[in-house]
Fold this sequence. Notes:
This protein is mostly helical. The chain is built from eight helices and no strands. It has helices at residues 3-6, 9-34, 38-44, 47-70, 81-105, 113-146, 156-163, 165-184. It is globular and about 60 Å long.
Amino acid sequence: MKIFLTLKHWQLFGISFGLPIIFQIIALVSIFASKTPANFFYISYLFPLLTLVFMGTYFGWFYAVGSNLHQKLPSSVKMNLMLFKTFLVFPVVYIGFICFFIFNMSQSVEPNSMILFMIFPLHLFSMFCVFYCIYFVAKVIKTVESQEKVSFGDCLGDFFLIWFFFIGIWVIQPRINALSQNDIA
């Protein structure tokens, strides 16, 4: 997982966003070029795969940054790494479940109503877990940089940069590279 700490911002952007966008463009061109609607259904099977690639990169980056920079926290600052890891696992499992559910729905006509009923509260909790993970990573970055306890207001800018990852990665990743450079050398 330390590879996420050494990737340049453009490499991480390319893996997270470039590959899925290129694939979607190729898929759309092939759908429109063939002029058969059946190709759309074949391409829809690959949606879960694209989701897993993006989310694997996104949550893998969270895990790498959160757990590796947690080791560099000053001794006076205590942050619950186990809670972070627990809240990181739930959205990963949930998104995997949703991808499986979407794949199965594309094969059957009638969805299971119990699963549809459970998706809403699970989705809300998954969103809470993601926001907590964003907060944790932003606070760890700011704390390691300043080597003192920081408040949420101090790391609010980093929180939004991580939330809007496609923009924030250009600012955050060079700082991650600088913070982790001591471990690599």
